[in-house]
Amino acid sequence: MIKKTLYFGNPAYLKKDQLQLRVEYPEDEEKPPKTVPIEDVGIVIIDHPRVTITQALLTALIENNAALLSCDSRHLPAGLFMPMSANHIYTEKLRYQLESSEPLRKNLWQQTVKAKIENQARVLRLMGKEADNMDYWASKVRSGDPDNYEGRAAANYWVRLIDGDEPFKRGRFEEPPNNLLNYGYAVLRAIVSRSLVASGMLPAVGIHHRNKYNPFCLADDVMEPYRPFVDLLVLEIAGRYDDDEIEQLTPRIKQELLVLPTLDVRIEEAKSPLMVGMQRTTASLMQCYEGEKRKIAYPEIQFPD
Fold first, then answer.
1. How far apart are CA 1 and CA 266, in angstroms?
2. What is the CA 262 to chain-centroid distance, rounded?
3. Pairwise CA distance, residues 10 & 21, whole Å
4. Would you state the pLDDT for residue 1?
5. Partners of 37 in beta bridges
6. Is CATH 3.40.720.10 the classification given to domain 4-81?
């Protein structure tokens, strides 16, 4: 089942009403309240300073493995609130993750980088760009990626992907469509983190990322091969809007970015929505930690038939 992504960009009062998430609109008394079954909620995005949420609802969301994203004054996701554990044998599974060997982690990162570069190459070809060098770099990735083919591929990818008077520079505070990419990646990060916890892992302990200030290192690792799906979505959206609308990241654009969990992905010939595919990816990673599998189930971007 695909969990719902709820976005709140106007004043609202959110509370628990039996097994429902109830939305009331205190500044618009003529607008009737709405309800959503809490068990159907996967992600809640709060993007207005006058949204109030009760502790009872927060607890119920956590118990149902939902993630909550809080946005800053620039309307970009700034904080992530999610369960500490959502698996009935969490401690046992966590031990496998924490005691994983360095060779295993390096091998998992090799798989991750290779899958990411391959998907980036597919995006370039879908956009009519040459990508032979990306194929070469993907084939040369070694355990742990000591040659930093991920970085080389990324630099080449962005310059080729987005045309402009000057080479496109990917960064958090750079020119649009970076703001759309940042928003999409933040939603993706929430999807990954939620799925990692459900599979019995701690998002803070990565296979490659190790920033002591980052509580989502593993999420940042696992989301890498999924980033190109965000890139394609952003390019499609950006192509339909004026520059002013893109620069402001309007509510309408954000609403279109929130289709991300429902995008179709294909993993080993099986097609599913991205949120469901992510569950398969994180479950396979846990099986790698447990020694039951040797390969992470990552998606492949498909070409139209």
1. 16
2. 12
3. 16
4. 67
5. 20
6. no
